[in-house]
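Notes from hallway chat w/ T.B., transcribed later so I don't forget. T.B. wanted the structure written out for a chain they're using in a teaching module, and asked if we could keep both sequence and C-alpha cells in one place. Agreed to drop them here.
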Amino acid sequence: MLRDLLDDGLIITIYDYDENSKDDNIGMALIDLEPLFCKREGTFSGHELSLQGYVSVKVIWQSAAGAWEQARTAALATARPGPIEAPALGTYGVLSVRLHSAEGLMAADRNGYSDPYVKLHLGNRKMERSDVCEMTLDPLWDQTFRFSGIISAMLDEPLKLVLFDRDKKIGDADDKLGEATFELSGLRTAYTVCLSQSVMYKRTVPRGKVNLIVSWTTDDLERGDRLSEQGGDEAIEISQLNEVGEIRVVLRKAVGLVPVSSRGRCDPFVRLELVDPEDGKPHKLRSRHLKKTTSPQWNQTLVLRGVKRRLLLEPLRLAVFDYEGMLSSSQELGAAQLDVSALLRAARASYSAKLTYGRSVASSNIAGAIELDVEWVSSTAPLTLTSMMPGPALRLPGHESRLSAPTAEEGTQPASILRV
C-alpha cells in the first residue's frame, strides 16, 4: 500500500482564499516521492508551481501500527495521575473518545481497498460520525469526540463503534465493515486508558482492529478553559449548573440569504436544536416562515425550559430553510453553530453569526448572516419577556457578539413562545 502511495507522487495545489467568492488557484506542483522508498522522511524544496512561485514540503511516513504506538505512549505519559476518589465519579464531566486508527480492515471495493468511516454510539446519546479515510485498510482518523454527563453513568454504558465503507455511487448503501464494543470500566481507576478491540464482521468473524484513547475530566465541564479565556475568575458552582429556568432565543433578522426562486426571493424560517448532553436527545424549535424575502425580520422569541447544565453546555445549532409547503421538504439555505456557555456567567448575549451551507457548519461557503439574542432566565426570576437586562461586557470567540438591553423599537415587536 505504501508503494502505491509513493508511486502516485504528491500533488500540491495552492489557493488564494476569498470569503465571498470562489477561491483562486495560484498553482500546483507534482512532487516525486521516490526517495522515500529508502528512508522514512524527506524534504522536497524549491518545486516550481504551475502558475507562479515555488513550494517546499517535508514528508514523513510511518506504519499504522507505529503511529498507534507513538500516540499511545504519548497519551499515557501525559495522562493525569491517580488515585481517583469515588465521589468524583458521581459528578458531571466530559468523556473524551479519541478515535485514533484501525488496522487490517476488510477490503470492500474492487480496487482492494475500502473508504472507512466510523459511527460511535455511547448508550442512547447522540451518534457521532468520523471523517472518511479514502482507499486504505489501515485508516488514521485521529479525531476526538466528547460526551457530557455524569461520569459513573457514562462508564456503565458500552461504547459501540460501527465501521462502514463509504460507497460513492448515488443510491448505493454503504457496506458495513464490522463493529467493535468497548467496556469503559477501566476508567474507574484511571483518568486515561488506551484500548484496542477486534472489528467483528457479522458479529463472529474478526476483520482487523480499531484503536482508541479514552479519558475523562470534571475540571473544565467541557468548556471551562474557554470560559476562563473569556475573563471569568470565579468558579461555576454546582448549584448554579443545576438551576432550573428558561433559555430564550430571540430571532432578530437575517441578511444576504441565498435566493432559490427565479425572482431572487425565498420564504425563510429557522430551526433551532439543542442536544441534551446527558441523554443525547435533541430539543427542536421552529420559527414562523416569512414570504418572499432574502432579508427576513422575525423578531420572534423561542423558549426552552429545563436545567441549566443540560441547556447551556452544548452548542446551539440553527439552520435557515426555504419553506416549500406542507407536503414538500424544505431546502436548507444555511446553518450556524453557537457556543451559548457564556450564559453560565452572563444573563444575556447577542450574536451575529455567519451562515454556511454544505455538509458542515464549518464549511467556508458563506450564505448570509443571522442576528439573535440568547438569554437565561432562572425560575426564581420573573418569567416575563421584558426581563432582559444587560450584563457585563463579554466577547464570544468565533462570533461577533455583544451584551445589551433591548431598544425601545425592539420592545414593541411581538413575541411568540414555544415551550418544550
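Follow-up for T.B.: Residues 219-235, 359-363, 381-420 have pLDDT under 50 and may be disordered. Might be a good example for the class.
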